[in-house]
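Notes from hallway chat w/ T.B., transcribed later so I don't forget. T.B. wanted the structure written out for a chain they're using in a teaching module, and asked if we could keep both sequence and structure tokens in one place. Agreed to drop them here.
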Amino acid sequence: MNIQQFRYSQGNLAYLLWSGNEAVAIDGGAVREILSFLSDNQLTLKLVTNTHNHDDHTEGNQQLLEHTGAGYIPASDLDEGTPISIGNEAVSIMRTPGHTMDSIVFTYENILITGDTLFNGTVGNCYSKEYRIYFQSLKKLTEFPGESIIYAGHDLVDYATGVMDSIDPGNTYLETYKMKYNRDHVFTTLADELKVNPFIRFNDTGLDSYRESLNLPIETEYERWRAMMTVH
């Protein structure tokens, strides 16, 4: 399976997955660039879909469909038990409600396309207001192997590292994390996220002093995460 990342709008990230001569567009707002890439690489766009149904992720759908004749499946209709075939390979669907209730993550081997559920350095807003559900979705993601590559729905690394500097100034790994950032290919590994991302380090005692300063309950994993989300 191959993956190509495209930047569009104000830091949104679109993805094209392809195997053989078949491709699938995920959050394909970079319409012109995706169409050019398809043409240059003699690929047929089989499907257009999204990580969730927010307008900034779906804005390219109609144009891609009109130019390619691809099929379309909204995130809410993708079945966790039914992979998407691309050429002779397949991408799995993982439902991750929380940011929105239709949020999903696409998984293939060590690749996770996480949309706005998990960013590089932070997490999405809980627009659904279902915080316990969102917490469980993030917990599931942290159980993937450390070498898993996180491809998010936005490039928020500059913002996220600024938040990390204020929340966790003693984190010695943060400078290494910053040095790995590449604007032209935005990704991190789950292992890196578990060292720096304060919103998925549910049990990291290095964040306890900051959590205690919030004067909120922090006895359980959920409470520790929920306290951090108040400063998100």
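Follow-up for T.B.: The two ends are 34 Å apart (CA to CA). Might be a good example for the class.
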